[in-house]
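Deliverable D4.2, example record:
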Amino acid sequence: MPASWIADPDAPGDVYGVYHFRRALDLRAAPSRFVVHVSADNRYRLFVNGTSVASGPQRSDVPHWRYETVDLAPFLRAGRNVLAAEVWNWGAYRPVAQCGTRTGFLVQGDGAAEAAANTGPGWKVLRDSAYRPIPISFADVRGYYAAPPGENVDGAAYPWGWERVDYDDARWRTIATGAGGGVIGRVQLYGVGDLGAPGTAPWQLQPRTIPPMEEAPVRFASVRRAQGVSAGDAFLRGTGALVIPARTRATLLLDNGQLTNAYPVVETSGGAGSSITLTYAEALRDAQGRKGNRDSVEGKTIAGVRDVVRPGGGAERRRFRALWFRTYRYVQLDVETAAEPLSVHDVSGVFTGYPLVERARFASDLPWLADMWRMNWRGARLDAWETYFDTPYYEQLQYVGDTRVQSLISLYVGGDARLMREAIVQFDRSRLPEGITQSRYPSCLVQIIPPFSLIWVAMVHDYWMHRDEPAFVRALLPGVRGVLAWYERHVDSTGMVGPTPWWNYVDWTPAWRNGVPPGADRGHSAMTSLLFVYALQRAAQMEDSLGLPAEGSRERALAARITAAVRARTWRPARGLFADAPDSASFSQQTNVMAVLSGAVPAAERRTVMERVLADTTLVRASYYYGFYVLEALREAGLGERYVEQLAPWRGMLALGLTTTPETPEPTRSDSHAWSAHPNYGLLATVLGVRPSAPGFRRVRVAPSLGPLHRAEGRVPHPLGDVEVRLERVGATGVRGEVTLPAGLSGTFVWRGREAPLHAGRQEIRL
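Output generated by the structure prediction step:
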């Protein structure tokens, strides 16, 4: 019979809870194939004979709930086998990014041979009373927090060995048919054929679209402080236990050496009545709340997200692993024992993240750029999981503005477009009936930042330029038009975008309240109007290429009218710059950069305008995030040679001991915002100058801007292979080197206005 969604019949479906499910399978022989499809709400981890084999489901929304497809054959054997799953629901404490409807678990065999694994009557369930949530407040982390709660785990109540074959589950509740039996809905999986009657459960299931997350052991680099106990290298390696005597308080500060995302793991024995509090932080703070140099711990304390482990005694070695990963460089253990000593055998982590591989490389004669590259790449990795994150410590939410920058890093450094593709689709699905996207998605709380919808249009254009999937992009055009139509309805008699509702955030800068530029709320913001033009122009290019030139012509004409209105009302000849709004005395880098990128500044004047943008210290300054657009405008204005000199703030990050890129300049809430990691894209796309010159990256343009560098080389992943570039200066104005293109790719090399054709294979360059 087909599978059913199941749950603990004695527990409400919408409250916090951790559940264990088991099913014994007797097999006559070890199978060569045993494929099942698995899902849960909120999350699960699946075990076969005690071995973890899958986790999920891939983060999405309820109308597109995901399931994983797993071949269990390598873990099965002849005779008795046990499928076991840990399923949890955060209930009222769920992270903002977590959608869901109620606690549930599902296994559906792929065919008749696997039908014995189907969830339904015969499965067993136990609600684990060992777990309690630890809510995390704004005060705990000194900032907005939207990620999961901490975990308080009581080892005395935990069902040790529940996932193993030899565990006795005789007292567990057996799922049964009928009222209150634990069956909560029939299922149909979309994407694998007809597997039964139409679904009666609320989850509309679709197959996973991205690979499983990477998991790898990670160990702490050093012990920075110890009180009440001494710890040496053996403990850090996991080869020597710490013994905390009875009735003792001890504190241990561990340093990972760099920021990471990992599932914390603590292994103990003994210690009945003891407790271990683990506090996780990106950095420590001094008495004034300042982080300062991240390598320094002297005079500083820790606060933040925390878990509590109560080992519960027992002579056997017990291994606690958190349900959810934590983000940390520093972890403090505060241990308090009762009448029995506690042995802590190991404290470590299991790194997790989207399996991005560093395919690109960049090297030059400026050594600190290599350190910056590593810092940026680490930040990009920590902010890529089943969705992109703005920050893994505080929010774990996928915002459009962050995601566009992160996607370009994934494309250029990892050569991987799958997470970008999924993000584009998710934002399209988030659109409101009136057309615009939500600012972040998936999310159980609706937040709307209208300018981010325009950034989403640019993100679709990025994909169109870098991946040859016209059918995919064409399917997104109705959503693109919906966004543009929403903004068009807000263009008023001035020809500019008038008042718009919701949060019109553009950039974090102290001069703009809540990141909103002048005029964005009450109307006639030059920044908002020019961002609309920027999106219209990119939409028009896609419409033309995909066979809809009439739409493209209309969008270009609208862009031209808005541009003319912005120039007429906000261009100030005396300053040679655009004001932020017609009635505003404010001038910003952001508005003038967007004027360059949207073509509101004529080509002959762009260089002059961008030189003013860089030189005029009275302008509202762009943040690290909007620095991406500043650097893109530099290149657009023919000032790419100044790219490297603009990276001084990143050298400052390294001097502060940062190992990932921060959200903002000091004082920053978050040390892990990949929107600030964009120089890894710029080193490849502007300094080496490798960019697509035709949709789908069907042709390449290599137009380097070496600036102060005498030598630069690198590799850029391309769908057909790798683009290799090696260059060095010759005299004051010349360049020589070589470019290698993969088979099937051709293009152009450009240097100071001179061009040379490029063909597949290796070729020498001398201009």
